[in-house]
Write a structure and sequence with these properties.
- The chain contains three helices and 19 strands.
- With about 240 residues, it is mostly beta strands.
- Strand 14 and strand 15 form a beta hairpin.
- The longest helix has 11 residues.
């Protein structure tokens, strides 16, 4: 079983890199949505329940003659592992967008949406997403936004004592999707500056914290800390 909680930089595949930034260490994996098959998963229709883990998703995809080259938890979820906000798989909306208030990181406004429409990916603040009239193939809503049009979320404090393992996603001007996970507890502020200053993403979205997990088979890594809801994955077909 692949249960390593971290991979050495020398073990990482070419799509991934290890970055040291403001006292934190991050694993960042980057993909061109015009070339990589980036998909979103939550419910296993055959098993009649959420996938809940990278292992279950990998097994299900293998039965469909596909395999995972990268995966990450992809947004916040309820106790039954259903998505809190917008969730679109293969162009089908499974859960509607949320514009209601509430407590917790998801509702630390503004929150936002990561989406893929055709060969193009993006991150937009929720109201901007609604105004864009997109018809995405893939979309997941989470919060808070980390970077909004080049500016850090206004509630992030550079001296905050709230430290946590965190993961998120951003898209740079060249269209590349960057998924990042911290390898040690970090502040929101520091995590957001990774996306803005090191990955050059004008917009970036927080996916989650504490349960943050990644699956990188080529690095012999498959985190399995908690049952998870939505999972984003890069998949390939098994060769004939």
């Amino acid at each position: 079983m692949l249960l390593s909680s971290a991979a050495n930089a020398s073990q990482l595949p070419s799509d991934c890199q290890s970055i040291d930034h403001m006292g934190g260490r991050y694993t960042v994996c980057s993909f061109d949505p015009a070339k990589a098959k980036i998909r979103l998963y939550q419910w296993d229709a055959v098993a009649g329940k959420p996938y809940g883990s990278f292992e279950a998703l990998s097994s299900a995809l293998w039965r469909q003659h596909s395999f995972v080259t990268f995966a990450m938890n992809a947004g916040m979820y309820h106790r039954d592992l259903s998505p809190v906000g917008l969730h679109i798989e293969n162009g089908v909306e499974k859960t509607p967008i949320s514009t209601s208030g509430g407590w917790g990181n998801f509702h630390m406004q503004p929150n936002g949406v990561f989406f893929i429409e055709g060969d193009r990916a993006g991150v937009l603040e929720t109201s901007a997403y609604l105004n864009a009239n997109l018809k995405p193939d893939v979309a997941t809503q989470s919060g808070p936004m980390l970077v909004i049009e080049g500016q850090l979320h206004p509630r992030f404090l550079p001296q905050s004592d709230s430290l946590n393992t965190r993961n998120g996603v951003g898209v740079s001007a060249d269209g590349i999707v960057h998924f990042a996970i911290s390898e040690n507890p970090v502040r929101f502020y520091d995590f957001a500056t990774l996306f803005r200053d090191r990955l050059a993403t004008a917009n970036a979205l927080y996916l989650d914290g504490s349960i943050s997990s990644v699956h990188i088979p080529a690095a012999n890594r498959r985190d399995s800390w908690h049952p998870m809801g939505p999972i984003i994955a890069v998949v390939e077909n098994v060769p004939d």
